[in-house]
Design brief:
Elements (H helix, E strand, L loop, with lengths): L13 E2 L27 H12 L3 E2 H4 L5 H6 L4 E4 L3 E2 L9 E3 L8 H12 L3 E6 L10 H14 L4 E5 L9 H7 L4 E3 L9 H4 L5 H14 L4 E8 L5 H13 L4 E6 L16 H13 L4 E4 L9 H18 L2
Parallel strand pairs: 3-6, 4-5, 6-7, 7-8, 8-9, 9-10, 10-11
Antiparallel strand pairs: 1-5, 2-3
């Protein structure tokens, strides 16, 4: 499925968090100076946007209102979102529309691959909406996209950010067999907050998903991320780190949650840059190969550079192993 700019989007059955329709709006907290970013204006930003539109592609950069879009697109980095722009779940932190998705577009994997080749990407991140309406949760579509990119750009390393494939038997095997370089699935928050932040998911099911990737392919890099500022406590964050390490996760990202609209989960507080530095130090001490923790960190922010660091960290670890 792709965005058709010739057809009015309001004709589609898309809604944003209907479960909150009768609840009072949450005021949006004023951002501190350390988290403000400039509006995108560069020539390369507009060129990247044109390539996405020419190929009829959806990007999570736009759909999730990422604050780093100007910086990333100016460098021709983008996270492409496959399987449409309408999600079957309604997480209270997410700005992607909820509703009944369209059928999958069988030509989308090739268009994604063409865009990757046109941009000349060394590293690409592919994510998707949740597709609980599909028998395999979209696993085969992920695999087809990975293979299409391999054919069009053999030198490009591929990172995927997947749904949890909950209750989708054998879906994970299909994706892992396609051999992405990095398998990312975000835990998003601490277990206590799942009911209000990520009600359609289950913390330990997501954790088990990451662990199973390592069971299937111990050499595949795994990655997971969470947001700070949703109401979690420091000890809860440290416990999530321990849970991730028990699941053999290699790479952790932690960034500040930003409330997209008044209908979304409110920001509990803005975590300071110093606190993020402390989280990063604690995470490295727990054994993660790579950690990115800062107010503006997002799952795919600086993903290409971080992948190179991740690979070097493994090589260094293997060189010193007994």
């Amino acid at each position: 499925m792709t965005v058709d700019t010739s057809e009015p989007q309001q004709t589609r059955p898309r809604v944003r968090h209907p479960e909150k329709a009768n609840k009072p709006d949450s005021p949006i907290a004023r951002k501190p100076d350390w988290i403000r970013v400039k509006a995108p204006v560069s020539k390369d930003y507009h060129e990247t946007r044109r390539i996405m539109r020419d190929n009829g592609l959806v990007t999570v950069c736009e759909e999730a209102a990422c604050p780093n879009i100007g910086e990333c697109w100016a460098k021709k980095h983008a996270t492409m979102m496959i399987m449409g722009d309408t999600c079957t779940r309604a997480c209270s932190f997410c700005n992607i529309a909820t509703g009944k998705p369209d059928a999958l577009d069988v030509f989308e994997p090739k268009r994604v691959a063409d865009a990757v080749a046109t941009l000349g990407l060394e590293h690409v991140v592919i994510t998707s909406v949740d597709r609980d309406d599909l028998e395999d949760g979209g696993a085969a579509h992920f695999a087809q996209t990975i293979r299409a990119i391999r054919n069009a750009s053999p030198q490009t390393t591929i990172e995927i950010l997947t749904p949890d494939f909950r209750r989708k038997d054998h879906a994970l095997e299909v994706v892992v067999e396609a051999k992405p370089d990095v398998f990312n699935h975000n835990l998003e928050t601490v277990p206590r907050l799942y009911g209000e932040v990520r009600p359609g998911a289950r913390y330990f099911a997501s954790l088990r998903l990451l662990d199973r990737v390592k069971d299937m392919d111990p050499t595949m890099f795994t990655k997971s991320g969470m947001m700070a500022g949703l109401g979690e406590g420091k000890e809860e964050v440290l416990q999530v780190m321990d849970d991730m390490r028990a699941a053999r996760v290699d790479f952790l990202t932690i960034g500040q949650y930003l409330q997209p609209t008044r209908k979304h989960h409110p920001v509990d507080r803005f975590v300071t840059p110093q606190e993020f530095e402390q989280y990063e130090m604690r995470a490295f001490n727990k054994g993660f190969l790579m950690v990115s923790a800062s107010p503006l960190t997002r799952s795919s922010y600086h993903a290409g550079d971080d992948f190179q660091r991740l690979r070097k960290a493994r090589e260094a670890q293997q060189a010193t192993a007994p």
